[in-house]
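Mods, move this if it's the wrong board.
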Amino acid sequence: MGFEVFLDKFESFVGVNFWTMIFAWCNLIILYFVLRKLLFKPVKKMIDSRQEEIDGMYYAAQKDKDDAEVMKKEYTEKLKVANEESEQILKNAQRKAQLREEEILKEANVKAARTLERAREEVELEKKRAVNEVKDSVSDLAISIASKVIERDINREEHEKLIDEFISSMGEENDTEK
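Not the wrong board. C-alpha cells:
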C-alpha cells in the first residue's frame, strides 16, 4: 500500500492537468506584462539612452577628428607660407647685403680714385715747383757765369727769358721721349 499511494502522488505530481496548464499559462502572460512594464521598458529606455549617448560620443569624436584634420591642413598651409616668407626675407636680406657691399666698394673706389688724383696733382705741383726752383737756380748760375765770362752785366730779364725758352724746349723733348 505504501508504494501505490506514493505512485499515485507521483503521477499527480508529474502528470499534466488541463486547468493547471491554463493557470500556468495565465501566470506566465501576467508575469510577462508585469515584467515588461516594470523591467523591460526601463531597461530598454536605459539601453536606448546609453546608445544615444554612445552615438553622440562617436559623432563628437568624428567631428573632433574632422576639425583636427582641417586644423592640421591649415597649420600645414600656414607653415608652408611662413617658410616661403622666411626664404623671401632671407633672399631680400642677402640682396640688400650684396647691394650694400657693392655700394661700399664703389665708395672705396671713388675715394681711392680721389686720393690717387690728389696724389697726381701734388706730384704735378711738386714737379712744377722743382722745375721752377731749377730754373731759378740755373738762371742765377747762368747769369753769374755769363757775367764773369763776358765781364759785363747782362740784362736780367733778357737772360731769364733765354733760360725759360731753353728749359721749355728741354721739357718738350722730355715729354716726347716718354
